[in-house]
Design brief:
globular; two-stranded antiparallel sheet; alpha/beta; about 300 residues
């Protein structure tokens, strides 16, 4: 394995049916969050963590993703002629972010299958997987921390977040070694880590081993590809990445095991309508240009609907 992780895989083949009809002709990853598409936040996060080689696993009708990260000479020339340098810089930013590659998933056989499709590009290196539905408020800080933990332990690493037990059935959920608390951490990895012993995909509340949910960031050893090749379709008839992680977690000596990093900053799940709207509002409030005007208006609006 390479000692320096540079590659990120972003599965982006989903149909986005929860946002129909908006996603009838526009990929869900291209829905705007304030002033840029959701997928750009994810690529920016990877780049901030030092991952400059990005592979997107796409499907049909996703060509606008490629167009977004490509040059549009006509627009650039127009903005340059008008002297609109700030807009020009923002347009060029997406093009210059990273070395972005694209690969069709083909059959929609699940997240595990999408990750497996990346094998030829990734090779025998550790790599990151970023799900496009999740935007992390801390930018690349979570991925940077996961890389540190991988380097310290040699394990595959997943991001975890404590969630309301009522929502636990919507997530993959981690079981962990009770002797490895987030106060003490995994030996050698520091605080905020736990040794994962197993994972359960979307369990009922009474079957959930904890309230630590796997969120959309993974740092995987290349052995995951061999496991995925042997993984049979699971929940929903799809090849689940969670099932492969279960095998890795159960084979610490041979496959390195799985360590969880607990993330406590804000995470925006843009995969559902309400959280998508919250993401736009919260990120707009944080924006130095929009926030000063939006914040007071939000207070007035909240007061008006509370009456």
């Amino acid at each position: 394995m390479s000692s320096r992780i540079t590659k990120a895989v972003i599965p982006a083949a989903g149909l986005g049916t929860r946002f129909l009809p908006a996603t009838k002709a526009i990929p869900k990853e291209m829905l705007p969050v304030v002033d840029r598409p959701a997928i750009q936040y994810v690529v920016e996060e990877a780049v901030e963590a030092g991952l400059s080689d990005v592979l997107m696993i796409t499907g049909r009708n996703k060509t606008t993703l490629e167009n977004h990260f490509d040059r549009v000479a006509e627009i650039e020339a127009l903005l340059e002629a008008r002297g609109e340098t700030e807009k020009l810089d923002r347009v060029r930013a997406a093009t210059n972010l990273a070395d972005v590659h694209y690969l069709r998933q083909g059959d929609p056989l699940g997240l595990g299958h999408a990750v497996l499709r990346a094998h030829q590009h990734v090779g025998d290196e550790a790599f990151a997987v970023l799900l496009g539905d999740d935007i992390m408020a801390g930018g690349g800080s979570l991925l940077s921390r996961m890389i540190e933990v991988h380097e310290a332990t040699g394990a595959s690493v997943v991001a975890l977040q404590e969630v309301d037990p009522a929502m636990i059935s919507s997530y993959g959920v981690a079981a962990y070694d009770a002797s490895s608390s987030v106060e003490d951490g995994v030996p050698g990895a520091g605080p905020d880590t736990i040794q994962i012993t197993g994972l359960v995909e979307k369990p009922a509340l009474e079957d959930a081993p904890s309230n630590y949910a796997v969120i959309g960031r993974y740092l995987l050893r290349p052995e995951v590809f061999g496991v995925l090749e042997q993984t049979k379709p699971g929940a929903g008839g799809e090849i689940q990445l969670t099932d492969a992680l279960q095998v890795l977690a159960a084979n610490r000596e041979e496959l390195g095991g799985v360590v969880g990093v607990v993330y406590r900053e804000r995470r925006f799940d843009t995969g559902n309508k309400l959280d998508y709207i919250k993401a736009i509002v919260e990120l707009a409030v944080d924006d130095p240009k929009l926030g000063p005007a939006l914040g007071p208006w939000l207070k007035q609006f909240a007061a008006s609907i509370a009456e």
